[in-house]
Design goal:
Layout: H1 4-7, H2 13-37, H3 49-55, H4 67-79, H5 85-100, H6 103-118, H7 121-134
Helix pairs in contact: 3-4
Length: about 150
């Protein structure tokens, strides 16, 4: 009776080296093809003018951003043509604020966001309400909501 191990055919010694070489070449070919298949729209020069305009606050940092982040931002820029002017302006102003943050501040913002997303919806709303109530208004904007008003500013 044959054991399960003996049922597996192992290439003879003379085939091992060419087989190994073929596997290495296949891996290289696959990784090269995958690199070429990566969308080039994340390259600054290949973006259309509206995408470059929207992402302009990040232009100085663009090449230093990870490829995944660049692709995500290009996707956001591409969606800007489908939103209202108010939504577009809000997204742009947030992008400007984000571009001005240091690396440490961005990491802190990401951690805070993840912690906020982990909260139950009622607690998230409570945090958002309290945050809105303590925001410092920008010049020319309305005063922040207070606890007594019962409404948070958007």
């Amino acid at each position: 009776m044959r054991s399960p191990e003996s049922a597996v055919k192992v290439p003879s010694a003379r085939w091992r080296s060419p087989l190994r070489a073929a596997l290495v070449l296949a891996c290289i070919a696959c990784s090269t093809a995958a690199a070429r298949a990566e969308p080039s729209s994340a390259d600054w020069a290949r973006m259309n003018p509206s995408e470059r305009h929207f992402l302009a606050p990040l232009s100085d940092q663009w090449d230093a951003l990870p490829a995944q982040t660049r692709r995500k931002l290009v996707g956001i820029a591409q969606r800007q043509s489908t939103v209202t002017p108010e939504q577009r302006e809000r997204a742009r102003s947030r992008l400007v604020e984000w571009a001005q943050l240091s690396v440490e501040e961005r990491e802190l913002a990401r951690r805070n966001y993840q912690q906020l997303r982990a909260l139950p919806p009622d607690q998230r709303q409570d945090v958002a309400r309290r945050w809105s109530a303590t925001r410092v208004p920008s010049p020319g904007s309305e005063a922040p909501a207070t606890e007594s008003s019962g409404q948070a500013q958007p």
